[in-house]
Structure formats: C-alpha cells, structure tokens
Amino acid sequence: MKKWILLSGLLCCMFSASFAQSSIEFIPTGGYTFGDKLDFASSFGKVDAGFNYGGSFQFNFNRHVGIELAYNRMQVPAKLYNYGAIPGDVPIYQTSAGINYIMAGPISRFPLPGSPVSLFMGADLGAAIFTPSPNSFSSNAAFAYGFQAGADIFIDPQFGIRLSARLLGTAPTSSGYYFGNWGDPGGYYVTNPGLVQFGFNVGVIIGLGKVLPAYQRAARQPHQSRPRKYYYY
Questions:
Q1: How far apart are CA 233 and CA 54, in angstroms?
Q2: CA pair distance 114, 99, nearest whole angstrom
Q3: Cα 160 from chain centroid?
Q4: pLDDT digits (tens, 9 = 90+) for 6-38
Q5: Which has the closest alpha carbon to 99: 77, 66, 67?
Q6: What is the spatial distance between Cα 152 and Cα 154, in angstroms, rounded to a whole number?
Q7: pLDDT one-digit tens code per residue, 79-110
Q8: What is the mean pLDDT of residues 194-220?
Q9: What's the distance, CA 41 to chain centroid?
Q10: Are strands 93-111 and 43-47 parallel, antiparallel or unpaired?
Q11: Which terminus of the chain is less hemmed in, N or C, by CB atoms within 10 Å?
Q12: Are 151 and 191 spatial neighbours (Cβ–Cβ below 8 Å)?
C-alpha cells in the first residue's frame, strides 16, 4: 500500500511539473516532406518526397507566446520532363536538389488544463536557398513562408516531445540559376515557380532557460455595494 501511495505521489509531482516550460528552448527536428510539381515555360519538374532535418530556437515570453528562429533542410531528387510526358517516362534531366529554409516567426501555445500537453500554432517568414548538385554552378534564393501546428508533450519542465505538421512554400521569382552541364536542356531558367511542401515532423524540446511561472489571473475584488442615501422630510 505504501508503495502505491509513493508511486502516486511521484506521478503527481512529475505531471504537475510537466505543465511548466522554459524561457529558451532548443528543438532539433526531423521528419518527412511530400513532393511537389513545378510548371516551367516549356516543361515541368518534380521535386520528390523525402526526409528533412533541422531545428529551432524558441524564445518564450510566457507560456503562451514566443518567437521561433528555425532552419530546415531536405536533399531530394529533382526531375525535369517535357510537357506531355506520362508516368514512367524517362526525365530529360535529373539532379539532387538541396532546399534550405531559414525562417522566423511567432508561436502561440495553448496549454491543456490538467495535462502535460500544450497545443501550438505558428507562422514564419524567411528565405529558401536552393543548391542543386552534384553539378552546381550557382544557387538561388527566394522569399519563403510557413505555417505549422501541433502538440508539445512535456515530461519535465525542460524536456519534452514536439509533434507537428508544417507547410513551407516559396514565392515565384524572376531570377534563375544554372545546374548541369553547360548547354544542357535542363539548365538555366529565367522564371522559377513557387514551391509548396507539406510534411510531418518529430522534435525533442530541450529547455535552456529558466522555468516560466504559471499564468495567474488577478483576483477579483469583492463587489462593494454603494451606501444608500436616506432623505428625511
């Protein structure tokens, strides 16, 4: 009986502490990103699905609002086809595309009462840097945006697990870059269409700062009735 009481006490202490969060968090992540199709002037390309990795630093003002600085990278095959190609056709060009996202934006957390879980959502702005390889003669950067949502599961105030779904995209750009051998039909493009990628990530939350205090609402002041005025005639 004493063992069960002791175990219950330890669990209560653990879960009561798990509601806390740290002011600075380092969150390494990894996951899977789905592919996308790109339409060019006289051809189309496909960026294959693949694994991504990266991480972020999150600076929390309180348990509900923070700022994220994030990096995400994936290295996947990119293929170029002539219009009219059908599934199974050989691409006219193939390379390995490195896509690097450097982002920053606000994060909002919504702790669930009586639970170690905090739901979150956020939006990011930044840049995407494309580096084709192995024959890479230049790189190209574009404006990038992102949205994410998920859940943080805290085991103790400075350690937890992050499960998230993320959308990353780039704006079309008038600049271009060259990859491949000079004169190759899959080389230089004047206009690069926007890229949209959706994926799922798993991360580890490592607290580096002080534990944030719980948010407490100001106690309501008791209502005081106004003294009645009596008039004598």
A1: 84
A2: 40
A3: 16
A4: 444 444 444 444 456 889 999 999 999 998 887
A5: 77
A6: 6
A7: 877 777 767 778 877 778 888 999 999 999 99
A8: 83
A9: 32
A10: unpaired
A11: C
A12: no
Structure tokens at 57: 């630093």
DSSP-assigned beta bridge partners for residue 33:
50, 199
Residue 197 and residue 25: Cα distance in Å, rounded? 25
Structure tokens, 20: 């806390």
Query: Is pTM, for the whole model, over 0.85?
Result: no
Domains, the chain, with CATH or none:
19-207 (2.40.160.20)
SS3 track for the chain: CHHHHHHHHHHHHHHHHHCCCECEEEEEEEEEECCEEEECCCEEEEECCEEEEEEEEEEECCCCEEEEEEEEEEEEEEEEEECCCCCCCCCCEEEEEEEEEEEEEEEEEEECCCCCEEEEEEEEEEEEEEEEECCECCCEEEEEEEEEEEEEEEEECCEEEEEEEEEEEECCECCCCCECCCCCCCCCCCCECCCEEEEEEEEEEEECCCECCCCCCCCCCCCCCCCCCCCCC
